[in-house]
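Journal club prep — side note

Before the paper discussion, L.F. wants everyone to see what a predicted structure for a comparable chain looks like in token form. Sequence:
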Amino acid sequence: MKINYLGLLVIPIILAGCVSPQASSTKPGTRTQSCKMTTEQEIDSLFDRWNESLQTGDANKVVANYADGSILLPTLSNKPRLTTAEKEDYFHHFLEDRPSGMIDMRTVELGCNTAVDSGLYTFTFATTGAKLSGRYTYTYHWNGSQWLITSHHSSLMPEKK
């Protein structure tokens, strides 16, 4: 029988990064992290917050949902958006047709100060009446005061209904 000693070392290191909300340490130089208790409903509401910011028509308000250093892989552009200015540029154009999103199906995974919301959504554009179906993944991080998007991937559905 072969023992994978590297695996035995990795597991405690991974687990050390996140401890229960009740855990604390008084030793100098010891790092602990409290985990934000959350629910699927709270994470579900983050899409609603993002969608409501779309309704304002203000790209700055949409981008306020994104963490510094986040990435946007948008639905209607091949260009990854890494900076605030790049995200604002994308949303400035996306918002011209007054989109409104609706979740069609989703799965949510909860972690220590992180969450992943993936699924299918449909956008309706008020100016044209057009509908666009897509796949999405949002990853979120709790920054100590609010949930922010750290990555957002969106792509058109490959097959027509």
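L.F.'s comment for the group: The first helix runs from residue 5 to 16. Keep this in mind when we get to the figures.
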